[in-house]
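Training component of the fellowship. As part of building independent skills, the fellow (R.M.) carried out the full modelling exercise for a liganded target. The chosen ligand was 6-O-phosphono-beta-D-fructofuranose. The inputs are recorded below so that the supervisory panel can assess the work.
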Amino acid sequence: MASSNIKKVGLLTGGGDSSAINDYIRTIVILLEKQQIKVRGIQRSYKGLIEDDFMDLTCKFVNGIQHTGGTCVKTSRTNPYKVEGAVQKIIKNVEKENLDALICVGGNDTLGVALKLAKEGIKVVGVPQTIDNDILETDHCIGFHSAVENIVKCTNMTMTSAYSHEREMFVEVMGRDSGFLALNSALVLGADSLLIPEFPADLDKLADLIQRKRKAGKKHGLYIIAEGVQIQGGKQIQDEIDAFGHIKFAGISYAIAEIIHSKIDVKPNVVVLGYTQRGGTPCPYDAYLSTVFARGTFNNLMEGKFGYMVAVINEKPKNVLIADAVKDIRLVSKQDYDFAVSLGDVW
Ligand code: F6P
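Fellow's submitted model of the complex:
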């Protein structure tokens, strides 16, 4: 492969962490070091780029980091476009460090900033990483499959108690704007129903389903609730807002359980899975996909292709314009949602 003029690149990871990022970092560092290209890890996402906080990423350093979860260069939700003078500092630090290109790994916010930096003249390669799997133009995002596996494992552990005590379990999963985590895990778990941000929650219908099933003899159930689902009068238990203007969600299921209790004489138990979803060892498929994303990144750097996000389509890397990937959020279709709901509506 013909080598471009790239001699040194910076790598950052932004937004929420997930399980297979270090697998990606290990692979891209190995590929680049073999071409004598230096990799500087940028600590805490754009924060490190503003504050000149770099570290060396070498084959020696990344040895064994695969399967460790989280991100070895740390992360943050820093938005340089909300900090005065930050963009100028970034441009200065990129020059000072002699970085020929930046690899920006993250979700819509991280990639959105990468796009703006590309417009400032910085050479960027984007890589989708979010457990929400809500990025357009790619089949997968790093972290999603591991999060589904974590949800499935943790939820299964709650179901023995649900069965023994004849309880209805409301398991709350992440997914701020889109319900892919809820959809995939509900299908895998055989959930009785699910609520996701894309569609209004009909709590009368949900109460009726629970009651119907209990009367028919099924006295325990599983309902997967995405944290971002909207209900009338519902209140999140947290109200922090991040630098990209997103509310920190968690806890809507408690309000939903109260409403269901007021409608029927059953009080569902709530389990908020929280950060267990994003943690721990990646599942093998996620770790494998990370190597595909790394191959795509490497090809772009070698061929001098910038301003693209490496997507994975049919397990092969594919370049899509970052601008196209971040122009909206990928959402669950009505058809897929109805399919999952209908599978639970038996008895
Ligand atoms: O962006 C992924 C995500 O895991 C969302 O599903 C969730 O709402 C958010 O991150 C939580 O963010 P934080 O780590 O800031 O609590």
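The panel noted the following from the submitted structure. The mean pLDDT is 95. The CA atoms of residues 67 and 281 lie 5 Å apart.
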